[in-house]
Design a protein that fits this description.
Its main location: nucleus. This is PARP-type domain-containing protein. The protein has 329 residues and is of the alpha+beta class. Among the domains are: 74 residues, 2-Layer Sandwich (first zn-finger domain of poly(adp-ribose) polymerase-1); 81 residues, no CATH class. 40% of the residues lie in helices and 10% in strands. The protein is built from 13 helices and 9 strands. The strands form 3 sheets. A 4-stranded mixed beta sheet has the order 5-4-1-6. Helix 9 crosses helix 12 and helix 12 packs antiparallel against helix 13. The chain is flat and about 75 Å long. The chain starts with 6 loop residues before the first strand and ends with a helix. The structure holds zinc ion (2 copies). One zinc ion binds next to helix 7.
Length: 329
């Protein structure tokens, strides 16, 4: 996913502002943006970045004198105050200390072995709140050392400093969220769309393929506006999302359609075989068009109502028609 970038410079020739359409005078600060095959220019005060995300100063082409650079810095600081920094793992090294005094559990060894099967962040965020016994275990050095080694195989641990709990959290903040490869502070890169660090290798995986709206429409046969996706900035300033996000959103969307339909059907007290049909629709295979389902259905007796139901779950088409039809059967 792309970071927001533009050039802030002193206008050397007259250009027109893309927002107010008025001339940008020579000698004042202007924003220059590369857009596919041309440049767009803006008055500094007319410009609002297209995507709401953090802007790192290092991604900006800056050719300003001291006075104007200060104006830009102030603008950046104000813009960035609501976002996670993309160029550093954290502002300050986190420090943690115990909030309540607790005594070791009689069953420490047993709990430890159980917690080793679980997710470290769940221990931290959920189980440690269960009771004092779990809270105590959530500070256990042996357990956190285990998590560090298990989850970040390539990380160098500082065995002098110990405090593996903090070390784990730092590793997590600095490592690729998908493959857990550690990224050095100098080469740190957080994906603006998901707000998590991601490495160069993972960016090439299929699940991180970038799709824009018309691609989603043609590939999945669905109007992307139905999926409530959060878009980021892709090449040529197109709005894009990762493929895995579309697939997850599709599943949620279709599950919701299915649940809604079942609720409605129960209200009407329908033929149980029709309810059965809906219950047996597998959301993961709803990608297929109805014609394929018909072909592969064998001797299953399928009616037009089945097709309407299927298509409704697939892409929420013809909702009223479907409800009326159900009421009349
Ligand atoms: Zn303007
Ligand atoms: Zn990775």
């Amino acid at each position: 996913m792309k970071k927001t970038s533009f050039q802030a410079e002193i206008s050397k020739r007259q250009t027109r502002c893309k927002v107010c359409k008025k001339t940008i005078d020579i000698g004042i600060i202007r924003i220059k943006i590369h857009s596919y095959d041309h440049f767009d220019y803006y008055h500094f005060e007319c410009y609002t970045p297209k995507i709401k995300q953090y802007i790192s100063k290092s991604d900006l082409g800056i050719r300003l004198d001291q006075e104007n650079a200060k104006i830009l810095d102030a603008w950046l600081e104000n813009w960035n105050k609501d976002y996670v920094p993309l160029d550093k793992a954290f502002h300050e090294t986190p420090t943690f200390s115990k909030l309540v005094e607790t005594a070791p559990s009689k069953y420490r060894r047993a709990w430890l072995e159980i917690f080793k099967f679980l997710d470290a962040v769940e221990l931290f965020k959920i189980y440690s709140h269960v009771n004092k016994e779990f809270y105590h275990i959530s500070w256990d050095e042996e357990l956190w050392h285990f998590y560090c080694v298990r989850d970040y195989t390539n990380a160098a641990l500082d065995d002098q400093k110990k405090n593996y709990r903090t070390q784990y959290i730092i590793l997590r903040m600095e490592s690729c969220f998908w493959c857990h490869a550690h990224q050095s502070q100098e080469r740190f890169n957080r994906c603006p769309l998901i707000g998590k660090p991601i490495c160069e290798k993972c960016k090439k995986l299929k699940r991180f393929e970038q799709l824009h709206k018309s691609q989603i429409e043609s590939r999945y046969g669905i109007n992307p506006n139905l999926l409530q996706l959060k878009f980021g900035l892709g090449y040529w300033n197109k709005k894009v999302v990762y493929r895995y996000m579309v697939e997850e959103a599709l599943e949620t969307f279709r599950n919701r359609n299915k649940e809604f339909l079942l609720e409605e059907m129960k209200k009407i007290n329908l033929d149980p075989t029709l309810v059965d049909f809906v219950e047996n629709i597998d959301i993961k295979t709803v990608d297929k068009p109805w014609s394929e389902i018909l072909q592969s259905s064998g001797n299953l007796y399928l009616l037009p109502i089945h097709e309407i139901i299927y298509n409704y779950i697939r892409d929420r088409k013809a909702e009223k028609k479907l409800i009326n039809k159900l009421k009349s059967t």
